[in-house]
């Protein structure tokens, strides 16, 4: 996916919290924050609420401005779709335009923050399927935002961004009984300048730590007793992560241009295969990857995404209900259109008022009986004026709807998966 020509270098923000367990109670201690990264410190119970306005809320604004954002929360390569659990394996594909794409991962379109949070809660409830393995599994909740914009040539271009929220498990040491924190693996690969091409979780984490993304790490350490070996290791890992720097810029892409480019590469690859007389081998595999990449681009069409979202929403509720994992009442249809904008609501109200006036004038004309020619002409003139006013408002409403349906309108999609 193309990024803006100018980029900004940003630091990775880190917040580390200590929680000491004495008996059955946990005592919250200080959160140690990187002051140079414009972060904060809290030391008392309840003060952790300042994390949201200082560290997390700015990420949402940046996502809506086209930037990517990643939140890393830390209290065999397998992935489970938590919104639509089934036996299908989830595999990551590195797309030449869109970056990392997870094949067959359910995405559900949402229109409100409440709908997104409801899906998150349902995904958390679905994690029960992991049983005793839950302490060794990480999860990833994602929001993908696409804003459609018209280009001078008339074709649609998109500002595309995403928010990744990781919940990571494991210790800050390789010898930890619960397994090592996936961050350790990724940081070692970074130090050795080796791209983590194996494993879905390392690939996605690498993207958040090295790629085009504003990233925040919230590290909560459970302290066992007065002396705990985990603390220095955890602080050391947080310090290393804090030193990372990333260059960020808004992401833009054009489905039409991406499809044209991929089709051109497919034609070139086919010509090479025919010229070389290949019937298999690397060239054929590359052709297959290009064809799959083109299909992924085609599947990004909003109408296809909405139709697929509606289908997933219906099927997944049946599966979740059968497992006893469905929370509360059915959520509203995610394929429904959002409420009209305030401007559209005012225009609709005005049209209704004009139509009521027109109805009144028509009734008076029909009940008026024999009247003078002048009075009759005045009534007909008012009726004509009302019809023209209604037509003008309806055209204005249509233009406004068309404007808000193309440039500047965002489509937000949620996904949630379990990573082992």
**What is the residue-averaged pLDDT?**
75
**CATH-defined architecture of the largest domain:** 3-Layer(aba) Sandwich
Looking at CATH, the homologous superfamily of the largest domain is: Kinesin motor domain
How many whole angstroms does the radius of gyration measure? 28 Å
Domain module tally:
3
Multimeric status of the protein? single chain
Q: What is the CATH top level name of the largest domain?
A: Alpha Beta
Largest sheet: 11 strands, mixed
Describe, in plain words, how this protein is organized in 3D.
The protein has 420 residues and is α+β, with helices and mostly antiparallel strands. The protein has 3 domains: 255 residues, Kinesin (3-Layer(aba) Sandwich); 68 residues; 64 residues. 43% of the residues lie in helices and 24% in strands. The chain is built from 10 helices and 15 strands. Strands 1, 3, 4, 5, 6, 9, 10, 11, 12, 14 and 15 form an 11-stranded mixed β-sheet that branches. Strands 2-13 form a two-stranded antiparallel sheet. Helix 6 packs antiparallel against helix 7 and helix 9 runs antiparallel to helix 10. The chain is extended, with a radius of gyration of 28 Å. It starts with a strand and ends with a strand.
């Amino acid at each position: 996916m193309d990024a803006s020509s100018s980029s900004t270098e940003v630091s990775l923000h880190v917040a580390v919290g200590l929680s000491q367990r004495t008996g059955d109670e946990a005592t919250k201690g200080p959160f140690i924050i990187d002051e140079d990264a414009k972060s904060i410190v809290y030391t008392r119970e309840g003060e952790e609420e300042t994390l949201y306005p200082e560290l997390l809320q700015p990420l949402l604004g940046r996502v809506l401005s086209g930037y990517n954002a990643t939140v890393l929360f830390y209290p065999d390569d397998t992935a489970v779709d938590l919104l639509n659990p089934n036996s299908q394996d989830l595999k990551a594909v590195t797309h030449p335009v869109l970056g990392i794409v997870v094949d067959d991962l359910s995405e559900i379109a949402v229109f409100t923050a409440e709908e997104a949070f409801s899906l998150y809660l349902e995904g958390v409830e679905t994690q029960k399927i992991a049983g005793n393995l839950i302490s060794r599994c990480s999860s990833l909740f994602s929001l993908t935002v696409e804003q459609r914009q018209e280009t001078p040539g008339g074709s649609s271009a998109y500002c595309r961004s995403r928010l990744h929220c990781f919940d990571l498990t494991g210790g800050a040491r390789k010898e930890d009984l619960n397994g090592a924190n996936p961050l350790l693996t990724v940081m070692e690969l970074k130090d050795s300048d080796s791209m983590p091409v194996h494993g879905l979780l390392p690939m996605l984490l690498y993207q958040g730590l090295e790629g085009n993304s504003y990233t925040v790490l919230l590290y909560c350490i459970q302290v066992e007793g007065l002396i705990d070996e985990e603390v220095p290791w955890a602080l050391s890992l947080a310090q290393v992560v804090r030193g990372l720097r990333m260059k960020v810029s808004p992401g833009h892409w054009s489905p039409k241009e991406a499809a044209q480019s991929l089709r051109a590469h497919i034609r070139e690859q086919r010509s090479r295969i025919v010229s070389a007389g290949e019937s298999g081998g690397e060239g054929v595999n590359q052709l297959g990857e290009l064809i799959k990449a083109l299909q992924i681009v085609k599947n990004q069409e909003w109408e296809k995404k909405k139709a697929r979202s509606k289908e997933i929403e219906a099927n997944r509720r049946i599966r979740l209900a059968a497992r006893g994992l469905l929370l509360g009442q059915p959520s509203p249809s995610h394929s429904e259109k959002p409420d009209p904008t305030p401007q559209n609501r005012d225009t609709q109200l005005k049209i209704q008022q004009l139509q009521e006036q027109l109805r009144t004038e028509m009734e008076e004309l029909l009940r008026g009986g024999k009247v003078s020619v002048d009075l009759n002409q005045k009534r007909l003139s008012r009726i004509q004026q009302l019809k023209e006013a209604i037509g003008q408002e309806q055209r204005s409403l249509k233009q406004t709807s068309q404007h808000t349906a193309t440039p500047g309108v965002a489509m937000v999609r949620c996904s949630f998966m379990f990573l082992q």
